[in-house]
Please model this.
Amino acid sequence: MDRRRFIVGSGAASALALLGGTAGCTARAEGEAVSATAPADGHIRGATAITKVYGDGQKLIAVAVEYDADITGSALSTSTFKITGRTVTKVYANRSADLAERGRDGRHVIVELSPDDKAAALWVTQQGSGAAAGSASPTPSGSSPTASATASSSSSAGAAPGGGGPKVGDSTPGGTIVAAKATVTQTGTVTTASGARYPASATKVTTGAVKNLIVDDFRQFTFNDPVTKQTLKYNLFVPKDYDPRKHYPLVLFMHDASVVNVATEGPLVQGLGAVCWASPEDQARHEAFVLAPEYGSVVIDDTYEPSPLFDTTAHLVQALTKKYSLDGKRLYATGQSMGAMMTLGLNIKYPELFGASFVVAGQWPSDQAKSLAKKKLWIVVSQDDDKSYSGENAITKVVKAQGTAVATAVWDGRSTGARFATDVRSMKAQKAPVNYAAFKTGTVVPKGSSTSAHMATWHVAYTIPGIREWVMGQSL
Model:
């Protein structure tokens, strides 16, 4: 399948959106957007949108403009280019359509953009990136405004299942993937390495390709479960230098209900829960497979009676251990909201499957939690998330009653990376098999944001590398 395409789920309808697609104009007036496959004024050969995933979802954070000759970076500035609706933060030349700390003279000019721009958001929910409560969400390429509004109005899908939230079997998407596309204008003079000068032009060029950082490193597959007879689409990251003579850990990430029936790649763009484990930094420390299923419908709600996809998920993990050279003692589970509930439930039903789990904003009936006392868990929740906070308090109380040590702490959700690193070290120093960190009341939701504390929990939790490091150090 072409990983440049996402199936965008919107209400009851799904539309195919080509990321970075263009209109393919054949004739134009001055100032009209042109197809990026045709040169603009004879020098620009094309433009590529570059995306990156953040805690609150994927964003368009740069455009690479390709020229017909090497460009010198010394004369470039943030005023050399304008991108409609965006804030330009950095401009430099490079030899490829890639971000760089320091550019090098080459055929590409990289125009970096502020990820804080509202128009940067490519993953949109009513509560999440790019849309305040009550505002209209951006309409994906190829989708009707009516369909998009239907998807964004399902904000309850981003809430914890039950209590007015989604029910098992609900397939209404709670989020929308917006096409990564931008229009760029060269507003200043560009100088080639040989000294030729390309003057400013009114010509507008629309991106005709897209590079999705880390997301493009995953491949998409379908699993047909012979036991449950269910079909489950999934994303799989295989380490770059995979060697079947070695044994690798695997991380299973399970998404929240806002991602159901969106696109196979949905779990990769909704936040960091999947892609953080596949980052170059994490892979340099711990080569690992990363598995991210895409659920076509809600798997679990407050009845705690899951759909067959619950068991299919476990069967998929087991099937992959037979297909690839995986370390059966180092299979890990993590998830947010619905996915956190599944993480807890799978640990109870399949006690010998996971070596450790990272549980973010979830809960499970405490009267079923005794067996969790034998598991290795790192739990993160917000004190403002009444349901998940009270639920995890009840679970850890049961775990303690079984004689298992539980390390606890209250963290500031606004902390810097260095502060979180210190917090993790302090908790790890207690050497407890179960770690329970709660974000202090009022610290997890950014000022002025309409995002719920429930959803904001995973916006922050997966940005903390020390927790992932702890998970990777555990085994059955």
